[in-house]
């Protein structure tokens, strides 16, 4: 018997253009796509890396909730930033999001799809 796959969309303009969804639930795993700090309702991108990080975390949190899990169940996170010096200002936000349940993590310095983006976050989680 195969486990059904459930796909979660967040109405990002990039999802249909590129052909992906925000998250895929393949029990017991939840895979959340790389998420930037773009407001999906307005298309606006905050200027500061901290504001982008906070917005990306809210989008990820909503996807995790739709999937039936939380940040406490995240086992792996990947941070992608065009400029490594933007990473440290995000540390307090990231530490607060994961709290007592820090995941394994990797930070990668690379270009992002829109030059205004300053951070992209991708997570893998388990269902409780």
TrEMBL record:
<dbReference type="InterPro" id="IPR006175">
    <property type="entry name" value="YjgF/YER057c/UK114"/>
</dbReference>
<dbReference type="Pfam" id="PF01042">
    <property type="entry name" value="Ribonuc_L-PSP"/>
</dbReference>
<protein>
    <submittedName>
        <fullName>Endoribonuclease L-PSP family protein</fullName>
    </submittedName>
</protein>
<dbReference type="InterPro" id="IPR035959">
    <property type="entry name" value="RutC-like_sf"/>
</dbReference>
